[in-house]
User: Fold Phospho-N-acetylmuramoyl-pentapeptide-transferase from Shimia litoralis.
Amino acid sequence: MLYWLTELSDGGDFFNLFRYITFRAGGAFLTALIFGFLFGRPLINVLRRKQGKGQPIRDDGPEGHFVKAGTPTMGGLLIVGALLTSTLLWARLDNGFVWLVLFVTMSYGMIGFADDYAKVSKQNTDGVSGKIRLALGFAIAAIAAWWGTYLQPQEMQMHLALPFFKDVLLNMGFFYVPFAMIVIVGAANAVNLTDGLDGLAIMPVMIAAGTLGVIAYAVGRVDFTEYLDLHYVPGTGEILIFTAGIAGGGLGFLWYNAPPAAVFMGDTGSLALGGALGAIAVATKHELVLGIVGGLFVLEALSVIIQVLYFKRTGKRVFLMAPIHHHYEKKGWSEPQIVIRFWIISVILAMIGLATLKIR
Assistant:
């Protein structure tokens, strides 16, 4: 929205700064951060009054979680609100990729909100049927996959870019759309599974979003893509502003979500942010790199899949409890130990993901 101020510029004044994506990304970060600080406490107070007993706690969960009873959920509203405000204010609204990632984020946020509302209103952990959530998630992902394909250069449509290789595009034909759908739905649900401890999900999301934002900026600049031997996708640079909003809104939320959490993110936030990561990966043709950058989320999701499949086959468990962060809780690790160590893993994976830009 503020980009229109460039029309007032003569090329050498303050208004000219709004032409630069990096300047507007900084503005988006600060806007989202201030939004979080301003509206965090009022939102928590409203959620506490409306929800009463707060988010239901699983009966079969770790014993230490019962002390969290009464903590309100739907804190993802704070992140999504900060992200939406900062993006609409600072991004170019004539950019299709901006609307693509916003569409996925808001749509998955609404699914999560419905699930959170069902849980707190019924005071059980069931929420919306898993089949309904998946069906809606795949429907949204299908729209996003076709949309992203339409926005990309013709020579890249229905193609998968392979990291570590120069100028290699794998033509998947029609199968690219289902693949992109799985990337988006998988990312959303993987982040959702990770959100089980205070502060555990939000920092890795911010790290992954920041990394993907740098990649989006590089992929959207022809000079960077020529130097790094990347595939050029015009317009993706504006996604950096969106990811800056995630970082600012995430920090504002973490202020209240740090142990002991005053509010939980809930599915409202985890599905929205996970879907956003998947949409960015599809938009920038870095779907496989998302598996590296978001490796922590992949690990969490795999731990659940392995646990379920192995238990059905043998009646035994691989992990003491899944997702894997609960396994380490059962082994005696404290919650801060798990959270900080998983943050460290996220940083390492992000550095490896960034390295794929140069290793060709």
About this structure: Residues 21-51 form the longest helix (31 residues). The radius of gyration is 20 Å.
